[in-house]
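Hi,

I'm pasting everything inline rather than attaching a file, because the server keeps stripping attachments. The sequence lines come first, and each chain or strand is labelled.
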Amino acid sequence: MDYIIAFLIGGLICGLGQLILDLTTLTPGHMLVMFTVLGAIAGGFGVYQPFLEFAKAGALVPVTGFGASIAKGSLLEAERSGIIGLFTGAFEFTGQGLAVAVFFSAIFALFFSPRS
Amino acid sequence: MASKKIGQATRKFTNPPIIIGTGTVVGPMEGRGPLAGDFDVVLPDLTCGEKTAEKGERKFLEQAAQIAIERSGISKDIVDYYIAGDLLNQIISASFSARQLAIPFLGVYGACSTCAMGTALGGMIIDGGFADYVLVACSSHYQTAERQFRYPIELNVQHKPTSQYTVTGAGSLVLASSGNGARVTWATTGKVIDLGIKDPCNLGAAMAPAAADTLLRHVADTGQDPDTYDLILTGDLGRVGSELFRELAKDAGLDVGNNHNDCGLMIFDCKTQRVGAGGSGCACPAVVTFGHVLREMERGKLNKILLIATGALLSPLSSQQGETIPGIGHAIVIEW
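And the predicted assembly:
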């Protein structure tokens, strides 16, 4: 059942993105930022966590999940170390993904010439 | 008084320049299209054996020019002018190909209207008595144009249903003051028209009003009935732009439903090849006209055609700053 719900909810979020791309003049860049910010806002107000528990990977994998993780880390760190924690905590949960992306991008750029 | 001037925008050549040779090179995608048999060279890949797509583009532009010169049976040294353009910043494909060709060079930019613009300018230079042989060429490349105007290919951004697929290829022709072949008899220079389209993924709609405007002024200047043309060929309006063009013409009282076609719709099989609303790019009208249409004229299937090559005069910067897209359409008449 988890798989089906994750599949459907994840698909719905992506379907929404597809509609925005097809029906508006917004670019993929706009959409990426918009979904991240929406996820962060939902995460900040505590709405995303119950949604995440319901839809599992269907809510975690889309970029809204990334936004919610940023908010989650910021709030957690803010509780621990005050206002500065809003900034230092932003990459608490997302840092791993970002570091992996940067690391492997650098490795691949060494071996493949990015100029086609 | 300029005796060859007919109306504000149209010029009638009294010694019509003759197309004595053509050269067309296309990429693999175009080579799978319905017109493949009419192109001189179909490339096996998009880089032409070069390290970058940009280097590949200038190589096949040069190749198309060389073929046109060879077909003309003349020596490169007696060509008076090389008029060329492309879509890249500072028209590097054209100027770098001119570096190899070593012919006095006039670089022009008219976006996808370049082939008609270059042919009209070359015709005027010949009819004015300033040259005997003029080489005209232009090129475009799917990957380099995507990078120039939209996103790098590597980013793999989805295409919209209204967006068009840039034709990879180059078209070239040699105009001469004497010889045998099709003649360029009239030229109507386009005005820049902008009806406020902002979406760079819908260039057909941005260019259609300019094409219609040029058609109307051509008809008004020359007094020709559109039905006298075997084919009214627009450059690269694609599916969306072509419909708009026919509607706009009809609103103005000209029915072009019978003899209009669009190079962007002819070069690909739009049903089976995934090209969005059709082909586009400098090479689109160039290879279709210089390759397919001129061969149809040789075969006796067409006698008199009107080519309106259309260009969208945007830059990536103007789009990012939210400006609308100005369009232009240059027309030439070719008669056998």
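Residues 22 and 290 of chain B are 6 Å apart (CA to CA).

If the labels don't parse on your end, tell me and I'll reformat.
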